[in-house]
Write a structure and sequence with these properties.
Number of strands of chain B: 10
Oligomer: heterodimer
Largest sheet of chain B: 6 strands, mixed
Number of domains of chain A: 2
Distance between the termini of chain A: 54 Å
Subcellular location (chain A): Cell inner membrane; Cell membrane
Membrane topology (chain A): Multi-pass membrane protein
Number of helices of chain B: 10
GO biological process, one term (chain A): phosphate ion transmembrane transport
Number of strands of chain A: 5
Helix content of chain B: 25-40%
CATH topology of chain B: Rossmann fold
CATH class of chain B: Alpha Beta
CATH architecture of the largest domain in chain A: Orthogonal Bundle
CATH architecture of chain B: 3-Layer(aba) Sandwich
Structural class of chain A: mainly alpha
Shape of chain B: globular
Family (chain A): Belongs to the binding-protein-dependent transport system permease family. CysTW subfamily.
Radius of gyration of chain A: 33 Å
Order of helices and strands of chain A: HHEHHHHEHHEHHHEEHHHHHH
Protein name (chain A): Phosphate transport system permease protein PstA
CATH superfamily of the largest domain in chain A: MetI-like
Order of helices and strands of chain B: EEEHEEHEHHHHEHEHEEHH
Structural class of chain B: alpha/beta
């Protein structure tokens, strides 16, 4: 032992002073700089690659999707006196106007006007819903019924596609003629944001799905946020550290990693199934396909995310603050609600909104609880049949009709704007509540 | 020596962290009009013992306290003692200044507010001003009570923490190395403050700095390896220690 130490120290004395100018040393330095440059290159390459993918996504979406916010409209000449429609003028000012016009055969009158204007088969040039906009115009100004007039009505899906250069040669030629005459054109149409699903791609809108998403998120937040945050507070501040809390912690971490479709099955079995426990019903019968059940299912899914984020945020509050409050006689609950929670809030909110964003984009669990139905009326409440944005996108992307492609892209734009708004909110809240030390 | 009953007494107090015994059978008396200093090398149990005096050890999961500690003759570990009230009566100042990340005013007003000590807003303002004056901080902060407490310098933060402890009108103030994170000038201010506060509150101070113990305290307790080695008048401890270990420590032979 002593000997070894002695040898070491003599060796240390005999070592020549380090020469920093040797070739080997220079090579090592060059190698180090090369490694540095290589790393920077890879880093920049990775950033450029992901930015390129993002730009590609956005550009494709916007390029395809902007047409979803426009509508092809066609100028339709109508001779109302010649159409043989019998309408009581007095009825047009009453609530029964819609019924009166429908009863007078407005739909057929509009179709024959189209056939008269565009030749045989001309009724296929206008949308099936064209008569609805004619009805609107009549209700706006009843005097049109007395004369021959022209009206802009939504064109059919075929004409719409022909405008984009798709379709049979006959329709392409016909549309080109109309276009040259200035009778057909595209217009910005925000009806897409105001109406709901339809079988006709020209008439579909996103409002029903958007409202369904909002209602679902509302339920999700209402359940997941308080339960998640309170669980986190209990586990961090009150629960004893023992085998049971370890087990709970492991379970929560595992739950956060469970595939979402399994939560869908759980929601199906628990909320829509019999709620049965040993053969007895223990809960209310909930409606299928409703925002309430969707929200509950998604709440189950994001609760572990909120618990984990909140626990980390609570853990990050310096213990000295707890000591300070306890030291002047604050009770444990005062310590939590006056000091720990406000300081942890930015982290909790960020985690919650990330969880909510995940829930907003979730499709699979909602398919299982029946939110994939074809829903024409926007949901009026939490128990009405509803669908949500990502499911709507999924449903439209499955349609064969070409007109749904741009509507799908337009719906994706709406979903992305929604997500961006939520992330913006997260950043705003974090900055607002963040304490500067 | 006064004949008045002791403010706090500890009898045969032992503290365990799990299996490990950190404080061994300590008996000590704390009097109203004196500053009591706890000195000793790191890990000797002096801070642990200090924290048993207002039951701050309760927050540590596996800590266990044996023996008896009384405040005005009442056992503070008995079931009848409300720990929240105890901590208001026995205030604490920590090693690292730990103001709340709120305004200076809110830092001081927090304690009176949760204990309902102020009847009105004016009353609360009066308590805050008085506490800051007693802590010797008023002149420096009176024009910026709404600034953040964390924006003050380290020494000012520590005096703010003392003002915060004073604001709930405690009887005893425990100070756990209150000046160890401060520069000499800020330290001198804290020591001066301790002098001024003496008599109004019973003060117990844990310190690493023996000169500080000699300067500020009237009674000194020397801890070593969890034992209370010697306890007596500060003058006697520093000039004529009875125990060999005390003598070795204060002459700097270890520590």
């Amino acid at each position: 032992m002593n000997n070894a130490r002695a040898t070491q120290s003599t060796q240390a004395q005999e070592r020549a002073p380090t020469d920093w100018k040797t070739v080997a040393m220079q090579r090592r330095i060059r190698k180090r700089y090369r490694a540095e440059r290589r790393f920077r290159f890879f880093g920049i390459a990775a950033v450029v690659l992901s930015a390129a993918f993002l730009a590609f996504l956005l550009v494709t979406m916007v390029a395809q999707g902007w047409r979803g916010f426009t509508r092809t409209e066609i100028m339709l000449p109508i001779d109302f006196p010649a159409s043989g429609m019998m309408v009581e003028r007095a009825q047009l000012d009453t609530a029964g106007a819609d019924l009166a016009l429908a009863g007078a055969g407005l739909e057929n009158a509009v179709k024959s006007a189209a056939a008269a204007a565009f030749g045989p088969g001309g009724e296929s040039y206008i949308s099936d819903n064209a008569w609805v906009s004619v009805r609107k115009a009549i209700k706006h100004d009843a005097s049109v019924l007395d004369r021959k007039t022209q009206m802009r009505v939504p064109a059919s899906s075929e004409v719409d596609q022909a405008m984009a250069g798709r379709g049979t040669s006959e329709i392409l030629a016909a549309v080109a003629k109309l276009k040259n005459a200035g009778l057909v054109s595209r217009h910005l149409n925000l009806d897409f944001l105001k109406v709901s699903d339809s079988t006709d791609p020209v008439a579909v809108g996103i409002w029903g799905a958007l409202k369904g998403s909002l209602l679902t998120m509302f339920v999700t937040f209402l359940i997941a946020f308080p339960v998640g945050v309170l669980s986190a507070i209990y586990l961090e501040e009150y629960a004893p550290r023992n085998r049971w809390t370890d087990l709970i912690e492991v379970s929560i971490n595992n739950l956060a990693a469970v595939p979402s479709i399994i939560f869908g099955l759980l929601g199906l079995a628990v909320f829509l199934g019999s709620w049965s426990l040993f053969g007895y019903r223990v809960g209310p019968l909930l409606p299928r396909s409703a925002a309430l059940v969707g929200g509950l299912t998604l709440a189950l899914m994001i609760m572990p995310v909120i618990v984990i984020a909140s626990r980390n945020a609570i853990k990050a509050v310096p213990p000295s603050i707890r000591d300070a409050a306890l030291g002047i006689g604050a009770s444990p609950i005062q310590v939590v609600f006056h000091h720990v929670l406000p300081l942890a809030m930015p982290g909790i909110l960020t985690g919650t909104i990330i969880g909510m964003a995940r829930a907003l984009g979730e499709t699979a669990p909602l398919l299982l609880i029946g939110m994939r139905a074809f829903i024409v009326t926007p949901p009026g409440g939490l128990t009405d049949p509803a669908t949500v944005l990502p499911v709507q996108i999924f449903l439209w992307s499955d349609e064969v009709s070409r007109g749904f492609v741009e509507k799908t892209s337009a719906a994706i734009i709406v979903l992305l704007v929604f997500l961006l708004a939520m992330n913006g909110l997260a950043i705003y809240l974090r900055n607002k509540f963040e304490t500067r030390w | 020596m006064t004949d008045a009953p002791h403010k706090m007494t500890a009898r045969d107090v032992s503290v365990f962290y799990g299996e490990k015994q950190a404080v061994k059978n300590v008996s000590i008396d704390i009097d109203m009009d004196r500053v009591t200093a706890f000195i000793g090398p790191s890990g000797c149990g002096k801070s642990t013992f200090l924290r048993t005096l207002n039951r701050m050890n309760d927050t540590i999961g596996n800590a266990r306290v044996e023996g008896q500690i009384t405040l005005d003759g009442e056992d503070i570990y008995s079931s009848g003692m409300d720990v929240v009230q105890l901590r208001a009566r026995v205030g604490m100042v920590f090693q690292k200044p730990n103001p709340f990340p709120k305004s200076i005013f809110e830092n001081v007003a927090y304690g009176p507010r949760i204990h309902g000590l102020a009847n009105s807003k004016a009353d609360l303002e009066e308590i805050v001003a008085r506490s800051l004056r007693r802590a010797g901080l008023w002149e420096e902060v009176k024009d910026r009570l709404n600034d953040s407490g964390t924006a003050l310098s380290g020494g000012q933060q520590q005096r703010l923490c003392i003002a915060r402890a004073i604001a709930v009108d405690p009887e005893v103030i425990l100070m756990d190395e209150p000046a160890s994170a401060l520069d000499p000038i800020a330290t001198a201010k804290i020591e001066e403050l301790i002098h001024e506060l003496r008599g109004r509150y019973a003060i117990v101070i844990v310190t690493h700095n023996m000169q500080q113990a000699a300067r500020v305290s009237q009674r000194t307790a020397f801890f070593h390896l969890g034992n209370l080695v010697e306890y007596g008048d500060t003058d006697n401890i520093f000039t004529a220690p009875r125990e060999e270990r005390t003598k070795d420590y204060i002459t700097g032979r270890y520590g």
